[in-house]
Amino acid sequence: MEKLKEFLNKKDIVISVKRYGIDALSAMAQGLFCSLLIGTILNTLGTHMGIPFLSATIATVSGIDYTVGGLASAMSGPAMAAAIGYALHCPPLVLFSLITVGFAANALGGAGGPLAVYFIAVIASEFGKAVSKETKVDILVTPLVTIGVGILVSALLAPTLGKIALKVGELIMLATNLQPFLMGIVVSVLMGIALTLPISSAAICAAFGLTGLAGGAAVAGCCAQMVGFAVMSFPENKFGGLVSQGIGTSMLQMGNIIKNPKIWIAPILTSAITGPIATCLFHMEMNGTAVSSGMGTCGFVGQIGVYTGWVNDMAQGLKTAITMQDWLGLFMVSFLLPAVLCPVINMVLKKIGWVKTGDMKLS
Question: Is the pTM of this model over 0.85?
Answer without folding.
Answer: no
